[in-house]
Amino acid sequence: MRTLGISQQEATNVLVRDVIGSEAYRLRAGDSDGYDPLIDFIGNSRFVLLGEASHGTHEFYRERIQITKRLIQEKGFTAVAVEADFPDAYRVNRYVRGEGCDSDAEEALRGFERFPAWMWRNADVLDFVGWLKAHNDDLSADNRKTGFYGLDLYSLHSSIDAVLDYLDRVDRRAADRARARYSCFDLYDSDTQAYGRAAALGLGKSCEIDVVNQLLELHSRASELFLKDGRAAEEEFFFAEQNARLVKNAERYYRTMFLSDVSSWNLRDRHMIETLASLDGHLSEPGSPAKIVVWAHNSHLGDARATDMGRYRGEWNLGQLARQLYLGQTVSIGFTTNRGTVTAAANWGGDAERKAVRPAFVGSFENMFHETEIDRFLLLFQAGGHAATALNTSLLERAIGVIYRPETEMESHYFHANLAKQFDAVIHIDETRAVEPLDRKSVWDALETPETFPTGI
């Protein structure tokens, strides 16, 4: 449709450019003071959800880290919960709280071995873990230390090991019972997908009853196992209980993924909100509720109800569930970029590559932001504000996960969303670069450049 010679899309672009020109807060690289308006906007919110438009962009990590440092220092946040496996992140948690055996941050991050290791074994996270350890070490004895926790559920076998290790130390008979239950998975060694396929298709025994009974036994013995031994024992029980819950949810996830993509996605994000709620309960004290920063992909933290996935596929996500569970206590912040490089694989399980990111397609939020010619900015969607009104429309939005396929970018990496309803704020950085893996190979150093960079559809 065209009105007075101007298409609806062009008119929207003009309006958005005008709004961003007048309302956006311009950011400078490395200047954390530029986030003063965001810190004020966050106010007394207890949950700040910091997204990313890819799993391999340096600037997304760096800006999340800058914001997180300010939330810890100025707002009293005492937990960082990330899109990572619980036992691997808990090893980092022990290190930053001065309780682990690792000698430095790099060693503490060695638990992240599973693909995609670069998400957490990268130079930016290494710097943050070192900073967090130093921050905690400088606190007085009566101040809470800030922890580092995982929300994801892929670590079925390492979580089984964590439960068994805990029970071996506190109750050998209970450990024997747990081994008998978890032996249900032995036939499949460490191949969780083989188990899921066999159980879903009726080709092998389901372990559902065993993992549920194991979690129920831990629940029933909670006071017996930790209350008489104080806070340290309570912390260890929390770790074991979360791993037992993870095993239960992961078992169901791997069974479901062979039957329905939507159901497995929903199970995964349901597990994330359950873990976040458990962490909230564990860290909260009378008169002093926990305050938690969450790091995950935009697709997990932006409200799914504002996207095609929510409207037409029936998907929900962590951001939606957090808004519903903690009404008025969450702020979600999305990130976007136009072009640059990204660390990603060509296929699941592949090596980390440094790939060129194509300029955003015309008709996308990213392209619209690029046309403002503002290199980096923060936009707040205040209720009733001009930005929230101007961007209250459905456009294309890009999402790059651990795999990037520029040759099928429109089909593989774009979806429709209403950005102003999906997030409470957005940070745009027009050109970004790949995050640097700690274990990079020669394939990462050899930049993959697509033959063409189309800018339209």
Rounded radius of gyration (Å): 23 Å
* CATH-defined superfamily of the largest domain: EreA-like (biosynthetic domain)
In angstroms, what separates the terminal alpha carbons? 17 Å
Helical content stands at: 40-55%
Work out the count of structural domains.
Answer: 2
Query: Main beta sheet: strand number and arrangement?
Result: 9 strands, mixed
Percentage beta strand: 15-25%
What CATH architecture of the largest domain would you give?
Answer: 3-Layer(aba) Sandwich
Outline type:
globular
Look at the helices and sheets and give the structural class: alpha/beta
Low-confidence stretches: 451-457
Descriptors:
single chain; 457 residues; alpha/beta; 2 domains; nine-stranded mixed beta sheet; globular
Task: Describe the fold and architecture.
The strands form three sheets. Strands 3, 4, 5, 6, 7, 8, 9, 10 and 13 form a nine-stranded mixed sheet that branches. Helix 3 packs parallel to helix 6, helix 9 packs across helix 12 and helix 10 packs antiparallel against helix 12. The radius of gyration is 23 Å and the shape is globular. The longest helix has 26 residues. It has 21 helices and 13 strands. It is 47% helix and 15% strand. The protein has two domains: 231 residues, EreA-like (biosynthetic domain) (EreA/ChaN-like  fold), CATH 3.40.1660.10; 113 residues. With 457 residues, it is an alpha/beta fold.
